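Task card 7
Instruction: Convert sequence to structure tokens.
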Amino acid sequence: MPILAALALSVAAKGETVLAYATAGPRATPNAAAPMRFVRVRSDDAACRPNCPEWISAEGKIVTGSADALERTLKAANDRRLPIVINSAGGAVEDAMAMGRLIRAKRLAVVVAHTTLAPCAKGAKTCGEAKGDADSRGAYCASACTLALAGGVERYVSQQGYVGVHQMTEVVKETQVKKIYKVHYLKLAGLKLELSRHLVGEQKTTQVAKRAADDSVDDDVADYFAEMGVTDPVMKLTLTTPSRSIHWLTPDELKLSRLATAWIDRANPILVDGQPSGLAGLAIDAKSASASQFTARTTAPLTISVNGRPARLEASFAFRRGGATVATTLTARDAETGAALDLPGAGAYLILYPQGVELRAGRLTADAPPSVVTSARSFCRLRRGGARAVISFIADGVEPDAPHPAPIVLGLKSGEGTTALLDEACPPRSVAARAADAHRGASDSKSP
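Output:
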């Protein structure tokens, strides 16, 4: 990977600002050799409060049991599709592949970045929810870590980070046991006869050695990369780079092999200063261009005509992978031509039931349709039976006798692209969570 010597601010040919970050090789992190630790983290950036993105931090060495630990962490997060932010020098091959298959089955994105956790408040007895920041500069994913990275449905890598491969190795432990006996002898006529033998102790000596993995391991790894859609030169370089060395993949090698599908275009890969929030990255090719953005659209007729013609209301919803919010844009259109229209009144409320969350949008104009942002958690409740989204118009500034649109109930389930958006932003919940929802629904129906 390229190494930049200094922080530079320059202007590219077309006039856009380009920010280059200085790195001096992979960043040494505390406890890099410790077993991988998984932590559910929420961004600590003030720009995104109260709906800040979350991710799963994966830092440290992949060991036997890491895949199980990741699975427990995901279950504790109610199987939400949080991105995996990984920083690791590798480790156990089998567990790395198991992590990758779990990540692919859950349709999660993987980001090569280091997570810094915010310290607890002074005197606090517990940290509560983990908060922190992620930084892609100098982050690394090497050796067996590339197997976990390959599992991501999207794979975010910074050109100021490091992804490296080398020959897979096996750790061989050989233990020798020396048994100590107490023996009683009888000497008779020059002969030494054993009368009894009792075990009194043991001495164990263990030697640990690394050796190149055999062909069956290489075949398993090659099959795994093919399963995940990762092609050469990754496997070729894995086989030809000695285990005592490492080959840091170039941007061209990452792109050609598709081990990376998106470039992280800033230091912090967690996008918190845009809507909808999510992962910050640029697709490296056309195949990956729309992989991170999910949109849906639904329409309903207006109860009044506009300029003497029938009209309809269009609501479009947008969610970015790894985000915490859904943005809703409202547009009035001519029912026949589809042209955008201005509507009377000061604006509209988007009301999400049954929780009754009200979000005020601006005036509906053809040139600048208003947009409102809600938390994904609130939006996802629309998946429950009986849930609905209602657009209620604000009559401020309208003549008393002027016609005004009546509230409109939007049918999200019948909308274009809604299923894919809901599946991504609102993955199926656990049996326990669904049972709790059903119980709350029953209680609501009994309340006066």
